[in-house]
Amino acid sequence: MFDGMTELRPELIQALFTLIAGMIFWISSRREPAWRWAALGSVAWSAHYLSGLLVWSNQGQVVSDGLLIGGALAWALGLYSLGQRAFPLFSLLLLPLLVAGGYGLFWKEGFSPQSAVAAIQLLPLVVLLGLLEPALRGAASEARLIWGSGLLLHAFAGVSTVWLGGPGFALPISLLGYGLLCLGAYLEWREMPIGKGLLGVGLLGLVGSLVWLGLLERQAPEPLVTLGVWGYAVLLMLGGWTLAVFGRIQRAERRLELWINLLEELATKPQSTQNLAPQGVLQSVMDGIRPLFGSLVGLEVRSDTVIRAGQNGPYVKTFELLLETPTEARLYFTSEPPEHRGLEALAPLMSERLRLSLTLNEYRSKAYSDPLTGLLNRRGFERQMQRLIRLSQENRRPITVALLDLDHFKKVNDTYGHPVGDEVLQHMAQLLRKFSRNDDLVVRLGGEEFGLVLSGANLDDAYRVLERIRQEVKVVRVGPITKPLSVSGGMAGGEIPTSMAAIHRWLEEADKVLYQAKQDGRDRIYPHVAGMEAGESRGPGRGEAEAEGSRNGQGSRGEKEKAAKGMGQKV
User: Which of 28, 261, 365, 410 could be bridged to 35 by S-S, CB 3.0 to 4.6 A?
Assistant: First the structure.
């Protein structure tokens, strides 16, 4: 018994190596449950070798073969459960080896229980074809190529026992295979790539197996065929490893180039004022990051307001922006980003770019808006008007400009003080916002004078809006003011403007009719009508009943004519 165990001592080493691989795969199953089957299969193979040491009967041989088959089936089931599969293309180069293995087991030697058991070891290789393809393309862990090579060596160690008629070649090949299984499992667990040292050791081991087979070629029925088949297997394994490493180097160089471009975009590349708008900056950062993180779908900045580019996603990466007020940036992904350290290194540069953008936007907002009411000032009006003219020409929609002036506002300031006057101006601004739409412009031109640009409105449409504003002003109540407030207005345009010069001309025309409304007693809205001389009286503005009739489409023909005369229009 002791002598037999001494002769079979290499199988004890095989059992130890296989058991270590099973333990490593069991640890890896914490991240990927499918590895539990691989761990159970490895333990079954370890028990197979131990049973060969302890049992010397026909029943013991059945148990040993059953453990070998069970281990192969468990490995096949585990491989089938793994994700990241792809249709085999490069991995189809393994098919000639499978065909050669089957030929060596059955067609050459005929069917036998030993050859059938050995053929079962080829089953995991069939399932392995679809799993190796993503690793060869760089879409899955390179460790698959290592433990995949270990499975290939284990399978052909069993085939060689039948083909060569003895364990002389099978034992060292099997040990090398289990060594690759352990190493591949460790790399998979630690998420490590194939290194130069592993390539060197693998090269020596696989070339050494060729030399060893050459020394044993006299045992082979067809030495040249045997050497050719195994040489092809060695070439495939080394070629797959090299392809994976070379592809990784190429991808690393590409990612380095993308990182450099992104860093230049964030840190050194000059930006125009338009591109420094918060929305534009977020979009440019998105465009720069997306080649590095393909699952990125949205970028959001949260402070007092929320600025967003893109959309939400199930995976979120957050970091703080170093701004005066607490500000948080959020990156949204459709899948978990692979490089958390890269995102953390990117955060300071993103913070600086967004900080610059938000600060510039704040300064620009102050430059283009009135600090008391928050409305556009004259500079902001000039800037926004260009966009509105372009939209009007593209959509073929008219524009009407109106000037509104609070009546007797100086008396309010003199009687109640400037704080009350400021409150009146703020209420007026809120009222104008209430009656404006997204494409309209509300402007404080200075003092108690406001401007309103109505997009898509002709003179009739604008008149109805301004009349409603005039009526609403009367019901505004501010602090100690007892008398109702009132407003006078003038409007012009109602057409599609050809240029900014047309807007300026309409403003002059609106200002003239506003002056006329003041002269005629205030609290009225006058349109500018082409052909009417400056200073010609428009008559009194529409009364409340006339205005209500106009809004509801009611009133007699005579009432409509009187209302039209009040506007200086023909019916």
Answer: 28
Helix (H) or strand (E) holding 442, with range, is strand 441-446
Residue 59, pLDDT score: 60
Cα Rg, the chain, nearest whole Å? 42
With a CB cutoff of 8 Å and minimum separation 6, the contacts of 302 are 327, 328, 329, 330
CA distances (Å), origin 290, targets 106, 450, 525, 532: 54, 45, 54, 61
CB atoms within 10 A of CB 5: 13
Give every residue of the chain whose pLDDT is below 50, as ranges: 1-8, 269-276, 533-571
Q: Count CB neighbours of 229 within 10 A.
A: 23
DSSP string, 489-548: EEEEEEE--SSHHHHHHHHHHHHHHHHHHHHTTSS-EEE--TTPPTT----SPP-HHHHH
DSSP of 38-100: HHHHHHHHHHHHHHHHH--SHHHHHHHHHHHHHHHHHHHHHHHH-S-----SGGGGGHHHHHH
In a 10 Å sphere around its CB, with 0-12 CB exposed, 13-18 middle and 19+ buried, how is residue 197 labelled? exposed
Strands, E, within 96-202: which ranges? none
Cα separation, 521 vs 536, in Å, equals: 15
Strand order in the sheet with 327-333: 306-310, 296-302, 327-333, 315-321
**Contact present, 550 and 464 (Cβ < 8 Å):** yes
Q: How many Å separate Cα 289 from the centre of its chain?
A: 9
* Residue 488 φ/ψ, nearest 5 degrees: -115, 150
CA angle 409, 414, 416 (to 5 degrees): 90
Q: Left if phi > 0, otherwise alpha if psi is -120 to 50, otherwise beta: which for 521?
A: left
pLDDT for position 54? 63
Measure the CA–CA gap between 434 and 444, rounded to whole angstroms.
15
How far is 497 from 389, CA to CA, in rounded Å?
6
H helices present in 401-457, as ranges = 409-416, 418-434
Polymer length in residues for the chain: 571
Using CB atoms within 10 Å of the CB of residue 564, give its burial: 0 to 12 exposed, 13 to 18 middle, 19+ buried. Answer: middle
End-to-end CA distance of the chain: 123
On whether the CB atoms of residues 401 and 453 are closer than 8 A, the answer is yes
* Residue 552: per-residue pLDDT: 36
Q: Tell me what pLDDT residue 534 has.
A: 42
Q: Would you state the pLDDT for residue 287? A: 76
Picking from 233, 339, 348, 264, the residue whose alpha carbon sits closest to that of residue 295 is 339
Residue 267 to residue 288: CA distance in whole angstroms? 12
Q: Which two tokens stand for residue 165?
A: 């008629």
* Cα dihedral 241/245/250/254 (nearest 10): 130
Model confidence pLDDT, tens digit, residues 265-308 = 666 544 443 444 566 667 777 777 777 777 888 888 887 777 78
The Cβ of residue 114 has, within 10 Å, a number of other Cβ atoms equal to 15
Q: What's the pLDDT at 188?
A: 80
Alpha helix ranges (H) inside 264-276:
none
